[in-house]
Amino acid sequence: MPEMPEVQGLVEFLRGRVTGLEVTRVAVANIAALKTYDPPVDALTGARIDAVARHGKFVDLATSGGGTAAHLVFHLAKAGWLRFYDQLPSTVIRPGKTPIALRVALSDGSGFDLTEAGTKKSLAVYVVRDPSDVPGIARLGPDPLDPAFTRDTLAGLLAGRRTQIKGVLRDQATIAGVGNAYSDEILHAAKMSPYALASTLDDADVDRLFQAMTDTLAEAVAAASGKPPAELKDAKRRGMKVHGRRGEACPVCGDEVRSVFFADNSLEYCPTCQTGGKILADRRLSRLLK
Predict the structure, then answer these.
(1) Given pLDDT bands bounded at 50, 70 and 90, which one contains residue 285?
(2) What is the DSSP string of the chain?
(3) What residue spans in the chain does CATH classification 1.10.8.50 cover?
(4) Where does CATH 3.20.190.10 sit in the chain?
(5) Domain 4-138 carries which CATH code?
(6) 282 confidence band (pLDDT: 50, 70, 90)
(7) Which residue ranges does the record assign to the FPG-type domain (predicted)?
């Protein structure tokens, strides 16, 4: 799943590539991916792309000069991605026969497809007058890349929450943009159990967590910066120390990286670095194996 650093890299790529171009055609191949109807998607035809921005894990292309001032907003969800072409293919998209959900053609002959692999379709596309009209954006918490997001901001978000810290970091209404992968990486860097309750963290814990979040996300954004979309996923995988590395050696202490499995995902952690050597059990059964 693309998370904030990859989405930021994607935004920077698009900002340098599509700003100032006109949208010549928009083709919807998976109508279920389009979540809005007013303005109609045709309002984008003839519009100029003025800016590209990120809201959490949402990408926002602001346009003007078409049928109405509109924003093309999309969330790539778990298995979605953007495929950019310097020369857009002329092949006809066949709905139901392709992973392509949406195709956008641009005035210089380039364009992009929004694609989604797998059978569980969660990719979401919106055409709105204002980004805040997208429910997921309206609910977003503060962005940890915002200079206004400080150690005290984080402390205030954690105070009184009797929720496991892993869940707090992933909650988009609490902190925008951090997902499953980077929450694993942040907690590993902070030497903190994913099952620790947010309300039990003391000042030193909050200091360590804030520094780990700042450093982990900054490094990931730097790794994604300047890369085309086709290279962003591999850059993400290469930067992971524990996430997706079950059975491998922790690069800090050499212990075996372990997993906890849930219905549709998993978390990874290092017992020596994060849980005092204890092996975490599936939380549906028990907090800890003792």
Answers:
(1) low
(2) ---HHHHHHHHHHHHHHHTTPBEEEEEES-GGGB---SS-GGGGTT-EEEEEEEETTEEEEEEESSSS-EEEEEE-TTTEEEEEESS---PPP-TTSSSEEEEEEETTS-EEEEEE-SSS---EEEEESSGGGSHHHHT----TTSTT--HHHHHHHHTT--SBHHHHHH-TTTSSS--HHHHHHHHHHTT--TT-BGGG--HHHHHHHHHHHHHHHHHHHHHHTT--HHHHHHHHHHH-SSTT-TTSBPTTT-PBPEEEE-SS-EEEE-HHHHSTTPPBPPTTT-SB--
(3) 151-274
(4) 4-138
(5) 3.20.190.10
(6) low
(7) 241-275
